[in-house]
Amino acid sequence: MRQIRFLFSAFFLFIGFDSAFGQSNQQLQSLHDFLLVNKPPVDSTLQYIKYTQGAYLHYLYPFYQLFGEEQKFRELLTDTGYYDELSQAASFVDDYSSALAYQQKTYGADVDEVALRQINKTIQGYKNIQHVDARRFISFIAPRYQVLMINEAHNKPLHRAFLISLLNELYRKGFRYLAMEMLNNYSNHSLEKLTSLTGHYCAEPVAGELVRMALDMGYKLVSYEDTAAVQHTASQRDSIQAENIYKVIQADSSAKIIVYAGYGHIAEKVVDENYIPMAVTFKKISGIDPLTIDQTDMSEISNFAYGKAFYDAYMQKFNLTSSSVALLDDQPVNVTNSGLYDISIIHPPTAYQDGRPTWLGLNGRRQPTYIKSSSKNTFLVQAYYQFETFGSRPGLVIPADQTYTRTGKGSYLLYLRRGKYILIFRDFKYRILYTQHIEVS
Question: What's this model's pTM, rounded to 2 decimal places?
Answer without folding.
Answer: 0.93
